[in-house]
Amino acid sequence: MLYCLAIYSDGIDPKLPRVDIHPVALASKPGHYVLILRVQKSWLVHRVIFKDHGHFYSRHSAGKYRLDVAELRTAFELLGTMAERIRDFRAERLSRIGSGEEAPALLDEQTPKLILHMIPSSAFNPSVSVDIKALNDYSKWDLMRPLVVWDTQPDTSIRFNLDGIVRSAQWIRNAAAPVSIPAGYVQVFRNGIVEIVDVTILGINGDKKQFLGEIFELRLLQAVKKHIELQQFLGIELPVFIMVSLLRMKGYKINRGGYPPNCTEEIDRTNLIIPEVVIDTFDGGNDHIAEVMRPVFDTTWNAANYASSPNYNKDGKYLRWWS
Question: Can you tell me the distance from the alpha carbon of 321 to that of 299, in angstroms, rounded to the nearest whole number?
Answer without folding.
Answer: 22
